[in-house]
Amino acid sequence: MESTIHLKTIGSTNDYLAKLMTEEQVPEGTVVIADYQTAGRGQTGNTWESAKGENLTFSMALYPDIPVASSFLLSQAVSLALIDTLDHFSIPESQIKWPNDIYVGDNKMAGFIIDQTVVGDKVTSAVVGIGLNVNQKDFSKALPNATSMAAVTGETYRLKDVLKVFRTKFTVRYNELLNEEAEDIRREYTERLFRFGSMYPYMAISDGAIFNAIITGVTPKGCLQLRLTDGTERTFAFKELRFVYYSTGLSLE
Q1: pLDDT, tens digit, for every residue of 51-86?
Q2: pLDDT tens across 124-136, in order?
Q3: How far apart are CA 163 and CA 148, in angstroms?
């Protein structure tokens, strides 16, 4: 997993790589990295903002050939690889905010999207787009809870060193996935979940109701499992739930 395409500026590395994969046989693990993305994408059309040359914004080509029913394992493997990377650099308190963000404390340090190609009942290929805040310290007021490795530690990092560590960590997690070590992946993912096991407020997007609950786990298909104060168990799919602050009721993004 060492092939790299380095671009100065591009709209979206995910779009670039997805198009390239339709035109030629791109080796698995190929990374397309950009110094700056003009149209970087977050989940469901959100924009990923990143200062030019200060962070990692890249996409990776994969051919997992796994059942669609197990596709959330790929998201879990990416999440754990990012956590492993931050652990390598001694970033404290890094956790996975379900389903696809990496938090340090209450602040967002990384996020990713996965564009999958499905043939029959198998995920035959995937483009994983990752944004990891590395050296940026000043963020837009529209991103009130953004942070970076440098903001947390006060150190400056070489982007290529951070990318190299991530690729090494991801290779380990990807091999676990391909070797069907699903239970280990799910267990470690759950253990590193942001807010796991404690009572916090959430908002149901369907009606805007705010309620307190405990995260108890994630289903194999990727839905978040919560236990409410009255003992009721509820399950939420992505974009059905928001995490909120205790003090303000504002959502965490």
Answers
A1: 788 999 999 999 999 999 999 999 999 999 999 999
A2: 999 999 999 999 9
A3: 15
Continuous H helices in 115-181: 149-153, 159-178
| Overall pTM surpassing 0.90 (yes/no) | yes
Write b or e for each residue in 204-234: b if 16 or more Cβ atoms lie within 10 A of its Cβ, otherwise e: eeeeeeeeebebebbeeebbbbbeeeeeeeb
H or E element, residue 79? helix 72-88
Sorted by where each starts, the structural domains of the chain and their CATH numbers stand as 4-191 (3.30.930.10), 199-243 (2.30.30.140)
Residues 219 and 222: their CA atoms lie apart, in Å, by: 5
SS3 category, 209: coil
| Phi, psi (deg, nearest 5) at residue 85 | -65, -45
- Per-residue pLDDT tens for 15-38? 999 999 999 999 999 999 999 888
Alpha-carbon distances, residue 19 vs 1, 4, 48, 69, 125 (angstroms): 19, 16, 20, 25, 13
Q: How many beta carbons lie within 10 A of that of residue 39, not counting itself?
A: 11
Closest CA to 43 of 133, 110, 125: 110
